[in-house]
Design brief:
- The protein is α+β, with helices and mostly antiparallel strands and 734 residues long.
- It contains 17 helices and 29 strands.
- Helix 6 links the parallel strand 10 and strand 11.
- Helix 9 runs parallel beside helix 16, helix 12 packs parallel to helix 13 and helix 15 crosses helix 16.
- The protein is globular and about 80 Å long.
- It binds dioxothiomolybdenum(VI) ion (MOS).
- Dioxothiomolybdenum(VI) ion binds next to loops.
């Protein structure tokens, strides 16, 4: 029964969002609300020798200045629970923990005042003396002195030997700078002091229960006394996966002052938290003269902090994606005097696949092969790292439909051979891949006799459309109209959910709804059977569906009982079920989503101006739950891919170890003028192995492959290969 699943349904929370009825973390109020402003370190490494708050305390309206010296007690760094997304090694950064400075922009004091303007002004009056130590923030200074990691994918064959023996070779080094998430909503937390030691924490987060566990552990609070809420999130992209320092500061201040406190970071301060790690990637590819890929080596050096070892697996996509008898990977981690890097949309794939797909393009050029044809020659129906078949993989159809929609067959292979007036035209392509992950989740459904259902789960909607797909799936499974479904999420008191991330929530929560709805259907069937002359007297659970407000026989829809009648006869006015769904992975299949990206650029060589005039993204991601929000999700990923290719770069003045462009005037992201024609195609992909609904998730796949497709198109337009992102006009001119 799928009257809603798959249809292009507008966001159920859309009206609330555009009218301002949807409230975000920094907008909640309390009668005694105090406002806090963060004071940030101006050195990158060393110690605070002294902090003088005397001037600050003279200003009217100032309530307190909290520092490491006068803060409430906090658990020892190595004793507290880390957080669900923390790296295995190291301990998370804690604001105001002690006098140590570990990065420039580190929060070192919190000014609390009766209004936010006073707090902000007074934070400029705090005098700090430091004992400075030398720092390093430049990845290139640490690349040879980086920590070697073990990669999950085992090498196969002898890649070095195969590379040396290959008829056609390519080797290249690709650089990706530090990038920041820049969501519209700032990091913010409003903590209301509810009395009796109870707190409500409105936080900008991708996982309320993760924040709850973290805060309780640091401040030794009881879970029943800390309720974390995040009903709406104004974009996060990974920046809200881990509890960030503003929530710790807000709780700390509320505990110190026994009153409600709000902390909102400034746009500039939002650069003093996690980021996509800068990385240097070296790739070697070797092939036979007829284009059989035979050797892949992918080495990466990525960035982390001094106090935590964060990394993902940039290199393993290379071994997984294409047939090659020989493959080898190494990954090193450079510790810099910066905050810990973190997940950012398509973590490891956006960047790792950029390097691989650029190198594949370069090898195709060396082979004098069409880049799409080359990829088809090493197409693999199995995950090459594990040898497992895919639960589904319709990448071939992505290539076909994408190429057709783009008009790829009209491409003239020579660089600089296509133009439009004074502009050079370039066509490039790349493959995208992501994981189809799913995580244990619990969903509660309360069905009332008036035909209304409430579905609740502690997951978030980080802007992806989770409210809407939950509504669609529940409406179909319960046989009710969309309007009769009410959703509760983003509240730590609701049934268990992990953070929303990794593209796993759509698959997890939708199948979780199926599980709980089955229990509701079972209850209804039991009630229906008890009715006198029940038309369902002999029916089993498998025989019946919920449809049009009735429980009905699948074989003969006339044999039906209305939900209202069944409940009335049974003397119940509500049915409540709460079920957990765990996704068994028997290890027999690989689960991935795929895409084919085709990009057109137009380059004005005299000015160095690059315009991305067309992108076609053909995506195979299992069942699409909502054609409209899915389209938006992929389009957003493509836009970000333009940013990665052409605009985004966090620039550090290594002398001070300080970010120079910590604002959205100088940190460039694509704007409307940068975005032209984007076509998104969803390729049919039935998958009855991955999960009952066949959903594979869409959060990340939209961005992966886009940067390489654009870089490859720029090469095709100009004959210039730029291997360090972003491809700014100065690089094209050199
Ligand atoms: Mo995503 S980078 O797991 O929010």
């Amino acid at each position: 029964m799928t009257s809603y699943i798959g249809t292009p349904t507008s966001r159920v929370d859309g009206r609330d969002k555009v009218t301002g009825a949807a409230k975000y973390a920094g907008e909640f109020v309390a009668p005694d609300l105090a406002f806090a402003s963060v004071v940030s370190s101006t050195i990158a490494k060393g110690r605070i020798a002294s902090i003088d708050v005397s001037e600050a305390m003279k200003v009217g309206g100032v309530i307190a200045v909290l520092t490491h010296k006068n803060r409430p007690p906090m658990a020892d760094n190595d004793k507290a629970y880390k957080d669900d997304v923390a790296p295995e090694k190291g301990s998370p950064f804690r604001p105001l923990y002690d006098n140590k400075i570990m990065f420039n922009g580190q929060p070192i004091a919190l000014v609390v005042a009766e209004d936010s303007e006073t707090a902000r002004f007074v934070s400029s009056l705090i005098r700090v003396d430091y004992e400075e130590e030398p720092h390093v923030t430049d990845l290139y200074r640490k690349r040879d002195d980086a920590l070697a990691l073990e990669e999950p994918a085992k090498p196969r064959g002898d890649a070095a030997k195969a590379f040396a023996a290959a008829a056609v070779r390519h080797e290249g080094e690709y650089y990706v700078p530090i990038e920041h998430h820049n969501p519209m909503e700032p990091y913010a937390s409003t903590v209301t002091w509810d009395g009796d030691g109870k707190l409500t924490v409105y936080d900008k987060t991708q996982g309320v229960q993760n924040v709850q566990r973290y805060v309780c552990s640091i401040f030794d609070l009881k879970p029943e006394n800390v309720r974390v809420m995040s009903p709406f999130v104004g974009g996060a992209f990974g920046s809200g996966l881990r509890p960030q320092y503003q929530v710790v500061l807000a709780v700390l201040a509320a505990l110190a002052l026994k009153r409600s406190v709000r902390v909102v970071l400034t746009r500039q301060q939002m650069y003093s938290l996690g980021y996509r790690p800068a990385m240097i990637q070296r790739i070697e590819l070797g092939a036979t003269a007829n284009g059989t890929l035979n050797a892949i080596t992918h080495d990466a050096v990525t960035v982390t902090a001094q106090y935590e070892e964060f990394h993902r697996h940039e290199t393993t996509w290379s071994g997984l994606l294409y047939k090659s008898a020989n493959a080898k990977y190494t990954h090193k981690l450079a510790r810099l005097d910066l905050p810990t890097s973190c997940d950012m949309r398509g973590p490891s794939a956006t960047t790792g696949v950029y390097a691989l797909e650029s190198a594949m393009d370069e090898l195709a050029v060396a082979l004098k092969l069409d880049p799409l044809e080359f990829r088809l020659r090493c197409y693999s129906d199995r995950d090459q790292n594990t040898g497992l078949p895919y639960s589904s993989k319709n990448l071939r159809e992505c290539y076909r439909q994408g190429a057709e929609a783009f008009g790829w067959d009209k491409r003239s292979p020579e660089p600089r051979s296509m133009c439009d007036g004074s502009e050079l035209v370039g066509w490039g392509m790349a493959t995208g891949i992501w994981e189809a992950l799913q995580v244990p989740i619990t969903v509660r459904i309360v069905l009332t006799a008036n035909g209304h259902a409430q579905v609740s789960c502690a997951t978030s909607d980080i802007g992806t459309g989770t409210y809407t797909i939950i509504t669609q799936v529940a409406a179909d499974m319960l046989g009710l109209p969309l309007e009769s479904i009410d959703i509760k999420l983003g509240d730590s008191t609701l049934p268990q959910s992990p953070v929303e991330g990794g593209s796993w929530i759509a698959a997890s929560v939708s199948n979780g709804i199926v599980t709980t709805c089955e229990a509701v259907r079972e209850d209804l069937l039991r009630l229906a059977k008890r009715m006198p002359d029940s038309p369902l007297a002999n029916a089993t659970l498998e025989d019946v569906v919920l449809s049009d407000g009735k429980i009905a026989s699948k074989q003969n829809r006339v044999r039906a009982v209305s939900i209202a009648d069944a409940m009335r006869h049974g003397g119940v006015d509500r049915i409540e079920q709460e079920k957990s769904t765990a996704f068994k992975n028997d290890g027999s299949h690989a689960h991935n989503t795929h895409s084919a990206i085709f990009a057109e650029v137009k380059v004005d060589e005299q000015l160095g101006v690059i315009r991305v005039t067309r992108i076609v993204s053909a995506v195979a991601a299992g069942r699409i739950l909502n054609a409209k929000t899915a389209h938006s999700q992929v389009m957003g990923g493509v836009v970000w891919g333009i940013g990665v290719a052409l605009h985004e770069e966090t620039l550090i003045d290594h002398h001070f170890g300080r970010i120079m462009n910590a604002n959205i005037a100088e940190y460039h992201v694509p704007v409307n003028a940068d975005v032209h024609d984007i076509q998104v195609i969803f390729v049919d992909e039935l998958d009855d192995i991955v999960n009952p609904l066949g959903v594979k998730g869409l959060g990340e796949i939209g961005i992966v492959g886009v940067p390489a497709a654009i870089a490859n198109a720029i090469y095709h337009a100009t004959g210039k290969r730029v291997r360090d992102l972003p491809i700014t006009l100065d690089k094209l001119q050199r």
